[in-house]
Amino acid sequence: MDKSLDQKLARIAADPTCNDFILADAKDPDLAFGLMGPGPAAADQRHRFRTLDEFRDIIREIVDRKLVDIMLMSASTSEILTIDERIFDDSPVTPAARANDTTDIWFAPGSHYRHQPSLPFSSTTIDHIQSGKYECRDVERTQGANLGLYSITLNNDAERDALTLNHYKQFRLEAEQKGFRHFLEVFAPNAIVHPVEDVASYVNDCIVRLLGGITRAGRPLFLKMPYFGPAAMEALVRYDSSLVVGILGGSAGTTMDAFRMLADAKKYGARVALFGRKINFAEDQIAFIGYLRQLADGTITADEAVRAYHGDLQTLGKTPHRELADDLQITHCPI
User: Fold this and answer.
1) Mean pLDDT in runs of 10 for the chain (335 residues)?
2) Which of 10, 41, 153, 182 suits 207 as a labelling partner, its CA being 20 to 30 A distant?
């Protein structure tokens, strides 16, 4: 089946000002948060978490309802749903897998990895994402996902950043050789060795410098990065009209945090949103994504979406995490 991602990317390439917006669900938290990754079992059980089987059932339902354009998973979850169960074969949703898991996303309780400058690392391989095994024939590469997320974190340290960039270069070369597509996630510095006065400008300029050395054959399909606000987003989008910029969601926050971030980012040029915890910690993920979709399509405002979402929760008999007045507040502002 034709994938909505490919159709939208083609339309955006033909007309960067079109209304198309790509929505992705980041269901790969097992690579970052371990046992807590699947999210709370219920609104009133914030410290009891879903099982991995329950987590994967939610993925199945979201894909079945065709609510997103991309479903991002860990390689192990993708193997089960993409290769074994074939749930994406007759779906417009594109399966994707996280292709690397740098040290700064390892959030094990008691660990200090996230506070140390990021180091490149990957638990999986392109071969395993594409086929489920390391030694595979070319024909077997079509069995799994053929889209991966590769992430980098730069910390204004020449030695560490060069190591990070060289690992990404090697990944790109292998991906090009094996026909594997990817999108690039660029985090804000997690442990700056040398102070950066303007983090947004630093990240933007690093992206521009990096992409300047990559030809079309190795170029990421789009970016995933923090939303630093209107000025930073407009500057990056204006610089290169062919660049498709996406935002990451970050921590869960209020419902208004999520809805306003998507609406504002689109207003100032973003064309993709990849939300993980904001979706995973929602009281009802199906309803929540439904309003993200309406916001992406421009058919509802953020304020209207929050109010309508609470109305749905009441109809479904689900207890909201917050009262409506509190959930309408902005608590996480762009840098």
Assistant:
1) 96 95 97 89 73 96 97 98 98 98 90 92 97 94 97 96 98 97 97 89 97 97 97 97 94 93 97 96 96 96 98 96 96 67
2) 10
Cβ(6)–Cβ(146) under 8 Å? Answer: no
Closest CA to 121 of 151, 97, 100, 106: 100
Q: What is the helix, strand, coil percentage profile of the chain, to 5?
A: 45, 15, 40
Alpha-carbon span 177 to 193, nearest angstrom = 35
Take residue 50 and report the two structure tokens written for it: 């879903």
Give dist(CA 35, CA 49) in Å, integer: 7
- Confirm whether pTM is higher than 0.90: yes
CA–CA dist 77, 63 (Å, integer)? 14
Q: Which helix (H) or strand (E) holds 6?
A: helix 4-14
Enumerate domains of the chain plus CATH numbers.
4-327 (3.20.20.70)
Q: How many residues does the chain have?
A: 335
Separation between Cα atoms, residue 230 and residue 76, nearest integer Å: 37
Residue 191 CA to residue 116 CA, distance in Å, equals 6
Question: Between 52-64 and 285-297, two packed helices, what is the crossing angle to 10 degrees?
Answer: 40
Helix (H, G, I), strand (E, B) or coil at 152: strand
pLDDT at 335: 47
CB atoms within 10 A of CB 326: 13
- Looking at residue 108, its pLDDT comes to 85
What is the identity of the amino acid at 284? D
- Taking the C-alpha atoms of residue 320 and residue 327, their distance in angstroms, rounded to an integer, is 9
Q: What's the one-letter identity of residue 175?
A: A
**Per-residue confidence (pLDDT) for residue 334, from 0 to 100:** 60
Read off φ and ψ for residue 293, nearest 5 degrees: -65, -45
Q: Which residue type sits at 79?
A: E
Token pair for residue 61? 């339902």
